[in-house]
Automatic annotation (TrEMBL):
It comes from the Eukaryota. The lineage of its organism: Eukaryota, Viridiplantae, Streptophyta, Embryophyta, Tracheophyta. This is Uncharacterized protein. It comes from Pistacia atlantica.
Length: 403
């Protein structure tokens, strides 16, 4: 497994300097850490906003001693290590799946300006962020997140599964700390591309067989990563030992596109709102179940949207693909899972407090397809967030009984 230690720094610094070209052009100028006025020379105090969730201070205008005043660290103006930094330290970078395209520098879709390094594809092979836990000699279990989440969502599942298995959680391309190429410059975020990239990841891991746990996506893109895994498995059943689906799209009702997230697929508005970390992460993660996000966790989920525009453009691209293909993907998943040729041992774990996916029809589907159904009464759509430790025990129990 080609995994390389992380050496790059996570801190992103934005230096903004607006200087008037003439004495009458502007009474203000921005310099790192300070707002200078030609009319007022008195030093300004740093205004602070108190976060009600844990009473942490957010530095709005950081003094020079802690940074340039425009440096973000996981959703917080830089004044030290953040939860996002700590999570990053636990992971490694894995290279998998070749970069397509001409190698031309990516440009943003609105103004056509050349984008920064974070939005550029790797030179030859994409970089994936992954966190491993447990002995590599044990059977490998892939923990695959949904949209628009990260491998971080499995942080409470990893320790439990790793007791008896080699657990690996990774960020999909376009999410978390993995590469986020600009659409049309190496990766277009289509279903077929994700299927091919998943095959590359599994081949890179090198195990004869793996088991997969996959989180279904949000209704705006419901079934995007579940069909990716199911479609891959339908062509490579010999590579999979077990498959666990977390609140997957299984009925026609699950193919509906809610307005809350479909806005990311709109022209221009989609580009704008996909750059808002509160819309792209906080609102999406907390509106589909009982999950109450802690501020430290929110910092991790917001981080990609605060450090670069690439995460937002990836979200925008996937939304547009799914708006066109959603119903087809859901129906294809149903067909594959109910086909008599499907031989992979499959378990559906269902959080019954899911606000976006109706439970009606799920039980009948599992009976008709002969798949095991495990209900979690206190969990919502994000089972791994609501009941992480319990889910870890369930996964380990399911796999151990099938040894």
């Amino acid at each position: 497994m080609a995994i390389q230690p992380i050496t790059s720094s996570l801190h992103s610094h934005f230096h903004l300097q607006l200087l008037p070209q003439s004495p009458t052009a502007s009474p203000f100028s921005f310099l790192p850490g300070h707002l200078h006025s030609k009319f007022h020379k008195a030093p300004r105090k740093c205004p602070r906003i108190i976060c009600k969730s844990n009473e942490d201070d957010y530095l709005i205008d950081a003094p020079v001693s802690v940074g340039d005043g425009f440096s973000f660290s996981g959703g917080k103006y830089s004044d030290g290590s953040s939860p996002s930094d700590e999570w990053f330290k636990q992971g490694k970078m894995m290279k998998a799946h070749p970069v397509s395209g001409s190698g031309e520098k990516a440009k943003d879709p609105v103004f056509g300006l050349t984008m920064g390094a974070a939005s550029q594809a790797s030179a030859d092979v994409f970089r994936w962020f992954c966190v491993e836990s447990g002995s590599a000699d044990n059977h490998s279990v892939l923990l695959i997140h949904g949209f628009p989440s990260q491998a971080y969502s499995y942080r409470k599942v990893l320790p439990t599964v790793a007791k008896n298995y080699h657990a690996i959680a990774f960020d999909w391309l376009g999410f978390g700390f993995s590469d986020k190429p600009q659409p049309r410059y190496g990766f277009d975020y289509t279903l077929d591309e994700y299927v091919a990239s998943l095959e590359s990841v599994i081949n890179e891991i090198g195990s004869d067989k793996v088991s997969i746990v996959v989180q279904a996506c949000f209704p705006s893109l419901i079934g995007y990563f579940s069909p990716v895994v199911v479609k891959y498995a339908s062509n490579h059943q010999e590579k999979l030992k077990d498959l666990v689906l977390l609140n997957p799209p299984l009925t026609e009702q699950h193919a509906n596109l809610p307005s809350t997230l479909s806005i990311f697929s709109n022209f221009l508005l989609g580009e704008i709102f996909s750059q808002d970390p509160l819309r792209a992460s906080d609102k999406a993660l907390t509106s589909s179940g009982p999950y109450k996000m802690k501020e430290d966790d929110a910092m991790v989920y917001r981080r990609p949207y605060l450090t670069s525009g690439s995460a937002g453009f990836a979200l925008n691209a996937i939304s547009r693909v799914m708006k066109k293909e959603l119903k087809k993907y859901v129906e294809e998943t149903r067909t594959i899972l109910m086909d008599k040729s499907w031989k992979v041992q499959t378990t559906v774990c269902w959080g019954q407090r899911d606000r976006w996916l109706n439970y009606d029809g799920v039980e009948d589907f599992c009976k008709d397809s002969n798949h095991k159904l495990i209900e979690l009464p206190m969990a919502g759509h994000h089972v791994q967030e609501d009941c992480g430790e319990e889910l870890g025990q369930i996964i380990s129990g399911v796999f151990s009984r099938r040894r």
